Amino acid sequence: xxxxxxxxxxxxxxxxxxxxxxxxxxxxxxxxxxxxxxxxxxxxxxxxxxxxxxxxxxxxxxxxxxxxxxxxxxxxxxxxxxxxxxxxxxxxxxxxxxxxxxxxxxxxxxxxxxxxxxxxxxxxxxxxxxxxxxxxxxxxxxxxxxxxxxxxxxxxxxxxxxxxxxx
Length: 167
Known about the structure:
Blueprint lengths: L2 H33 L4 H13 L5 H8 L3 H13 L3 E6 L2 E6 L2 H28 L6 H32 L1
Antiparallel strand pairs: 1-2
């Protein structure tokens, strides 16, 4: 195989790996939004807009997410009503972008949960472990809470990286 062909194949593999990483990130970010009660398609669109960090038209989102144009526009209207997405007109086309405060608000909410709610919950579980009867179950619960706390810290760090990259 010629060196040029090997280099071209390497680039194709690298591009595919990058795309797969973005899909994984988008999927995880959309999963967070779904937990806040946002519909699945809306969550995917919101995550895509955050990742791209630039205004996109409905046809761009349709292409990237493999959704119908009517589904994309319906979701965008729902997201605009919720003040999560802003629409701007450039020429004859409408473009959509995430409200710049969304990521900061989400990050702040998660940090608050980590700082206050997890600490109080862990304290309450530790205080309750004084009863021998339920000690084993409470220890298991405490381990699961600490694992969730660790996962939330990882998510917060990831979101801080995304927020820092978008500044």
